[in-house]
Amino acid sequence: MSLSFTEEQIERYSRHIILPEVGGKGQQKLLNAKVFLVGAGGLGSPAAFYLAAAGVGKIGIADGDCVDYSNLQRQILHSTKDVGRSKAISAKETLEALNPDIEVIPYTERLTSGNILDIIKDYDVILDGADNFPTRYLVNDACVFLRKPLSHGSIFRFEGQVTTILPFDGPCYRCLYEEPPPPGLVPSCKEAGVLGILAGVIGTLQATEAIKLILGKGQLLKGKLLIYDSLNMEFKKVNVRKNPNCPVCSDKATIKELIDYEEFCQINT
Questions:
Q1: Is residue 126 helix, strand or coil?
Q2: What is the pTM of this model?
């Protein structure tokens, strides 16, 4: 791998470059990497911020919503002046202002079974910060079909969870939760609330997993579900087994094409 940094890049990424686990070669990997984020909300905001700061060369970020005042308690990509504007466009402007080295591709349309495969096919790592179960299952299935590494995160009230999915090399999201719950069974963050700073913790953990994937360093949360209880300041790691009857990633898979579920959680985390 040929290394070619400008003087400004050497200074910008100096704290990475002096790490033996990263070095110049690792920083070049980051600059060459392409990461796609599902959502520019509570989880996508901190994840995207740190990936941009780290020098991930191309960041795609999809969000069909516009910024509103209730988002500003946790969605740090946006500010008061962005209320009413597209979240994806606001995210692009914020990230490129932070690091002009990188390219940010905004996707303002909602992800569906008809567009997701074409959108994510050229990205190296996918981060799922979706606010609703239909999108989580759609993203999981698309990543399994394309064999794309996926970092999943979710938050609710004072608790969050993170796992990393390497399709066919460990369990997928459907191994953990085979089918979406019925509409209305699980309250949304709009209904139940969420601690704003919790989004920062979980989103940053997702970004950490993505960077480790790109660098090929450390132990990933493959086959592990990391659960964070912010009220009691406790982390718990739970083993997750691959389901031999998983409908999407097992030898007995019954889902052969993407499915659009009726969305019932409309508000971003």
A1: strand
A2: 0.93
Main-chain phi, psi angles of 232, to 5 degrees: -100, 5
Q: Which of 191, 162, 218 is nearest to 47 (CA)?
A: 162
Pairing of strands 58-62, 103-107: parallel
Walk along the chain (269 residues) and give the pLDDT tens digit of each residue: 667 899 999 999 999 999 999 999 999 999 999 999 999 999 999 999 999 999 999 999 999 999 999 999 999 999 999 999 999 999 999 999 999 999 999 999 999 999 999 999 999 999 999 989 999 999 999 999 999 999 999 999 999 999 999 999 999 999 998 887 776 656 565 667 899 999 999 999 999 999 999 999 999 999 999 999 999 999 999 999 999 999 999 999 999 999 987 543 343 44
DSSP string, 180-234: PPPTTSSPPHHHH-B-HHHHHHHHHHHHHHHHHHHHT-S---BTEEEEEETTTTE
CA of residue 151 relative to chain centroid, distance: 6
* 76: its two tokens: 């740090």
Measured over the CA atoms of residue 155, residue 237, residue 141 and residue 124, the dihedral's sign is positive
Question: Are 127 and 210 spatial neighbours (Cβ–Cβ below 8 Å)?
Answer: yes
